[in-house]
Amino acid sequence: GSSPFGGPGGFGGSRRKSSKKNLGIPSKEYIKVTRLNDRYDSYGYSVTSATESKALAAAKLRSSNFDRALSRSIASGLTPLTPGEKTDLIRVEKELLTIGGQLVAEMASLQRKMTDTVVTEEMKSMGVEVGELDAEGDGGEYVPAKEDEGIIVDAVIEEKNGEVASNDTETSAGREGKSKKAEVKKDGLKSMLKSRSLKSDLNELSKLNTEVTKLELAFVRSVIEILGPERANAVRAAILGNEFGGTAAAGTLLKSLQERPLKSVLTSLGYNDGEADGRKKSLFVCEFPGDVTASQVSELREEVTAIVRSAKPGDEALVVLQSGGGTVTGYGLAASQLARFKEASMKLTICVEQVAASGGYMMACTADKIVASPFAVLGSIGVISDVPNAYERLLREGIEFQTITAGKYKRTVTPTKKITKEDIKKSKEDVEDILKLFKTFVHSNRPQLDIDKVATGETWFGTDALDRGLCDEIATADDILGQYVDAGYDVFDVKYEPEPELGPGLLSALPVGQSNGNGGLVQGLVSWAFRSVAPAAKEAIEEEVRRTAMEQGGGNVSKRYMMKDPSNPVERIRAQD
Length: 577
Fold this sequence. Notes:
By secondary structure, the chain is of the alpha/beta class.
């Protein structure tokens, strides 16, 4: 019942309606996916619009969008098409293309006839003799006209008094003649529209245009009936187009289907007599700009998970890699993440734009195909361990570190203890063991390599790396992506970008409306920021000091051994004056 305080919600107000939750949409999204084909289409639109015309650019973009929208509409159903439904679609399309093609041919013939009529009448009024449309010969070479054939090669308009107007100087008689001709043209247009032959042809053209429209509408109705209610909205969106324009003019739908029939659309979706090989495939693209600790693996693992869980048979992955290597543990994990593509039976291509050295090359070798730009640096298959030692200096300062260990090799080379030959020998053995693991991993993924010749710690530029089998092709990532787009792939850029979380405590802590009476709201906001940030900064500094001390004391095992190029080949060699 209603509340005595006025209204169903009480206190004179209406009850607030609870917002409905769409169960088909997750409460939070973590992955951002961008279709790169759309970006390339936009490039094409901009260039075509500037160099040719906006109309042509828009027509090309509409064609591309219609193609994709039609494919998505057919694939939008929860249940796949049956063989019978597929056959019905092909049948109604064949009828449209057959009958519609005949109608369009008649329209083109009629248009040609009317154009010829108008041009011929105008030429006669100008005193120009109508010649043959085609010159002699087989069309392979130009055959000049003969003098006695009467073909007008360079026609001029003769005035009534028999004098020819000069090309250089316009006489008053010429200007008067032009004015008269303008009036004649206006009268000629009116008389042309009253011409019986043209009027009859125009009526016939209108009838044919109407027939084409009826035929297309009947086709659309049949397609919606075959695809059923669950795909009806998607088909409507595909046919009507989007914000770039739609298929409004008669014959536009017919032309679109002539350029790409439904059969090819069905094939791209996997409806090719039960086989899925013809489905339009996808390429998923990730980037890995690796640092020394391979910290980007936290994003890479999420991106790989999203891709392998969503990919269909035949889909591929491409990683744009940029890394000079780093920790053994970090890059070992990063390489293991890329190996998941192979486990999922997905082909992996890795594009090296500038450098894939040491741990970076460990990642690259997991690919089915490694593509390097002409001056990219590859290799540096080796291991390094750098530990500074201040024992002698500390001894002079009267400082002695006492380290209690259990285990013969618990501490070998550290910054604070006296280094013995046994310590050096043990550390060398550890580094050699890691190198063996590194070489085995690389060779198992690229058995064509002469591993002993390339696992020397050296690096090579693009073409030299190709000669040694460290890569398979010299090209840029842009070239490879363009090849996939041209091959008909849907190319998607995948990034792990979770939505930021804004807890209620963050907003409630803001000094909104607060003032200390001296500086007002602005000073209050500055004071609040200092009070909030200063403790966090202090804690971060303390943590950095503790971390540095742990690393120097040998406590951080993950950073003790590194698979990196210590000389930084990108910075070491420069092409500059």
